[in-house]
Amino acid sequence: MDKWEDNRAWFLVLPVFIIVAFSAIIPLMTVVNYSLQDIFGPGQRVFVGVEWFKEVLSDKRLHEALVRQFIFSGLVLLIEMPLGIIIALMMPKKGWGASLSLVMLALPLLIPWNVIGTIWMIFTRPDIGLFGAGINALGIAFDHTASPSDAWVTLMLMEVWHWTPLVALLAYAGLRAIPEAYFQAARIDGASAWAIFKYIQLPKMRGVLTIALLLRFMDSFLIYAEPFVLTGGGPGNTTTFLSIYLVKVAVGQFDLGPAAAFSIIYFLIILLLSWLFYQVLQNVGKGEA
Amino acid sequence: MAQIDLEEIAHAYMADPREVSDYALKRIHNVWQDGGAYALLGPSGCGKTTLLNVISGLLTPSRGRILFDGRDVTRLPPEKRNIAQVFQFPVLYDTMSVFDNLAFPLRNRGFNEKDVKKRVHEVADILDLAPFLGKRAAGLAADAKQKISLGRGLVRRDVAAILFDEPLTVIDPNLKWQLRCKLKEIHEQLKLTFIYVTHDQVEALTFADKVIVMYEGEIVQIGTPQELFENPVHTFVGYFIGSPGMNFVPFALENGIARVGDAEIFLGERLAGVAGTATGELKLGIRPLYLEVHGKKVDQGVEARVKSVEDQGSFKILTAIMGGHPVRARLAEDEPVPQETAWLRFPTDWIRLFSDDRLL
Asked: Is the pLDDT of residue A87 over 90?
């Protein structure tokens, strides 16, 4: 049979092709282009090969930021995932209580990120902030602008307050989707609450929790606005995460080449880790027992 | 094993029921014999599942008592009753192997691992699940999954009754029959009380020794499949059981004759006497199987206009209009089918009379 061709089909694909090109491919290729050149100004550029990659990979400040970033994302996942699940388990199943808790949970998610940073910066200020002044009045010295550990505590509190609701909402949706018969069967089988959680609720939530984990990992790894507003990366460099450092390099120092190389490495790390998480979670609960 | 007594059970889902229509179960009062195979038959929404959940303890009835062998279990939770339940779709612990699924109810009750192993193997043999014991339950076919659900009930030696809530809904039609046979076999082997909820009359009639027909929150009739077929006590039972259901025509009694529009049906002395005592709205019922169809005028024949004939393969269903009402008759495949006009004869032995939908 002859292969039938009609080139007009390309016109139907064209809009999507253009959108993807402008939103993803062209910016990404621009970054690749920058990462291989030394740019002095408009029209003045020199091809330097992988020089910037070598420089960036041996940058000690970047190593520190990367370690900080991993600690931060690790803590975020360790705290937010279990906490979100616990909140979802405790939420009312129906009635006005369910609606109320859903609205309450959604509130932090509706606030612009830089506003969240501002809220917490004021909230934790040791002189006028409700939290900061309150805790100092209790005799505990607390100042997130001076003490690195206080800065981290503040940052984590803000992050958990801001994003745990997302995990909780996803987990709640997963829980509500479990048919009632599972719980009835478990009661008849004499299962304890822990066994119900372990053998019914957790396995049935796997899909939504995978999504929650990926979203929380990626977002926390890319965090910028909130710490930028809250601490500006300080005190010192103690809360300078990858994106904050990247902006310092790119905008502050106008080192577009190294910044581009840095961006690509950053992107690859996130891509690799997301893929790993996804594979692991997909394989949990498969295979022969 | 146990006899189950339901004493004046009524249940409403709302907190403050006032009217009769607020109740999902109106008044249930009956005894389920130890070792019986019961089918609970009725249309969707008639309260079958509610009744099942009351027996298993998933629901506490608004009123009444439930006794297992004379012991009051009304307030006991399901895990404290010796009851197992199989649901409409297979309920499995997906992450566990078939063995662990079957062992789950025993392990929860603190049996030692040696007994668990022995018992699980026994039950797996009964259910033909032995080859799958090491497999993950999630990967099996629907019928095997449903057997596992049943197995989780059977492993408990103390189990008194197994409740089935439309268990074959998700099973392929060709496997349905197999699984139903397996259920029947297990029932004969283990002599457990089986209560089987369904809205499929074929399932109910082939599975059960006794069929309980429910309608709008009440039990309307309990009987063997034959009793339900021949002597329905309520027009609903007549209509619901049999395919097609019983014919019902409203009539007026006139000198030993039932008048249906311009048609006259001979009742005979006995039936006329019975009908004479009734005070409610009268209806005459007859099974399509027992309605005689003749091509020409016969003694006591009622003239009717033939409306349609459906060929069902091994038999034909004739629909005719008689006195303004449609009636159906079942004809054998080789029986001649009258054109346009038919004479219907109502054998008095098979006529059932109803007053306000209750059998007279």
From this structure: yes
Residue A88 has pLDDT above 90, yes or no: yes
- Residue B84 is nearest to which of A182, A188, A200, comparing CB atoms? A188
The CA distance from B220 to the nearest CA of chain A, in Å, is: 28
Q: What is the CA radius of gyration of chain B?
A: 25
Domains of chain A: residue spans and CATH: 61-283 (1.10.3720.10)
Q: B253 with B281: CB under 8 angstroms?
A: no
Q: What is the per-residue pLDDT across A146-180, written as a single tens digit (0 to 9) for each?
A: 888 888 888 899 999 999 999 999 999 999 999 98
Q: Which residue of A189, A198, A204 is the best one to mutate when testing the B interface, meaning the one whose CB has the most B CBs within 10 A?
A: A189
Which has the closest alpha carbon to A261: A66, A59, A52?
Answer: A52
Which among B91, B107, B145, B148 is the top mutation candidate for probing chain A, defined by the most A β-carbons within 10 Å of its own β-carbon? B91
Question: Residue B140: phi, psi to the nearest 5?
Answer: -85, 165
Prediction ipTM score: 0.78
Q: pLDDT digits over A217-231, tens only?
A: 888 988 888 888 888
Q: Any CB–CB contact under 8 A between A193 and chain B?
A: no
- Amino acid sitting at position A223: I
Q: In Å, what is the CA distance from B112 to each residue of B66, B118, B119?
A: 32, 10, 11
How many helices (H) and strands (E) would you count in chain B?
A: 9, 22
Q: Does A177 touch chain B (CB under 8 A)?
A: no
pLDDT value, residue A1: 54
Give me the domains of chain B, ranges plus CATH numbers.
4-240 (3.40.50.300), 247-359 (2.40.50.140)
How far is the C-alpha of B95 from the C-alpha of A288, rounded, in Å?
10
